[in-house]
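Human: I hope this is not a bother. Would you mind checking the protein record under this note? Thank you for your patience.
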Amino acid sequence: MSLAFSVILLIVIMLLGSFFSAFETSLTGFSRAKMLKMYNDGNKRAGIMIRLQDDIESVISTILICATTANSMLASYSTAVFKDNYGEKYLWLFSVVQVVVIVFFVEVFPKMIAIPRSEKILIRFAYIIDFLYRKLRFINRFLSEASQLFARILGINLKSQRTVDDSLDELKGAIELHRRSDKHTMEQEKTMLRHVLDLDSISVDDVMVYRQHVATICINDAMDSIIDQISNCPYTRVPIWRDSDDNIIGVLHKKDFLKLINNTNNISYDDLLSIMRKPLFISENQNLLNQIQVFKINRENFAIVIDEYGRFMGILSLKDIVEEIFGDVSDDNEPHDNNFIRKISESTVVVSGLVNLRDLNREIGTHFKCDMSATIAGFVINNIRMIPHEGQSFVIEGHRFKIIKRQKNQITVIQIDKIGSAFGLIEEKQSVLCDS
């Protein structure tokens, strides 16, 4: 066999090894989501790769068999060719060169090419990979059985330990890897996607409007008083109760009330009852993901929140859930409540005691948590185990909380000062210190 032919054969074997090395990297690095999108767009080869991913261990094993075979042939045949033509004097030097060539041209370089082009490579060579997978299935099965037997001897469990939480963590990791040239837009997108994934871990009582801040009307009041209350109410939906404010009998839509006024001269209680809508009652412990489904099924976007004893706890609207994902979406025409967050300086904010902990964390980058309360006032009280007086200060989780204003037993205004680094960057163990 001529030297020229041998060199050509060696180059072919080296190219085959390079291709198999690129295939191996592509199989471990391609995005199933991208492949699924290409398949939905009509790419049949993407469908082949999605099918093969269901048995990805065998597919990778197939490619490894081919790559190992090619590399072994390359090493042994090149050594034989060199020995036949140049003898054994410089065989040690050839071995060094051989290792460098195989490592660089067959392993490292093809993998570097494949990493950013995983999907393109797999799509182009999908039929070849599928052919090799089917033809070497018997060998794969034998190796798989042998590996499992050997693993059992060593006491190793080869079964997949992946759980639903692993997939969720992988998705959250993909969100963190999201990149865009506009950093501000990128951070907004990341925040929204994180909040969507967290909907099943956020309960209704974390975002609902509590009963003390809900405008309600008693059906037992005089009709003139009811009409005045509805007319002056800034909200579009008003819960109606009878005898006790825990006994919600309906929800009045203001637009229905305005139609009634235009069409009726003397409004009676029966007229009012006829336009009331049946309330949708939900549990305060319901998570937001399930609640969205409840709204869809009932074709409703407003619900009355009750506790385990059936007591009225507050209200929840679809807008509250939307704001949990996108942030504040209110406009200038909407009434503004006292749930304010005012930044005084880089190290100080003044907030209403009614501010939701999640809203505060989102606004200033902190990580305050409290299982017993959803508001910052409740967070403070739960940590200090007392009702504080105006002027008192407390250090909780590396932040100083000063009580600015209190009405009866309710904390209404709190000043929060960072201690040390910026908001949200403090990772101290929780401590509570009191300054009179």
Notes: The chain has 18 helices and 13 strands. The chain has four domains: 3-154, 164-197, 203-326, 341-435. Residues 148 and 154 are 10 Å apart (CA to CA). The longest helix spans residues 56-86.
